[in-house]
Amino acid sequence: MNTATVTSQTSVSERAKAAAAALILGFVLIYTVGFAASSTVHNAAHDTRHGLAFPCH
Amino acid sequence: MVTRVLTVSILAGLLAGLLISALQHVTTTPLILKAETYEAALRAQSGPMQAAFSGEARIQLAHNDPKAGAEHTGEHEWKPQDGLQRTAFTSLVTIGTAIGFAALLLAGMIAANEQVDQRQALAWAVCGFLAFGLAPAMGLAPELPGSAAAELQQRQLWWLLTAVITAGALFVFLRVEASWARALAVLALLLPHLIGAPHPAAPESKVPAEIAAHFAALSLAIQAALWLVTGFAVGVLWPWLARRSAVTAAA
Question: The complex's ipTM?
Answer without folding.
Answer: 0.85
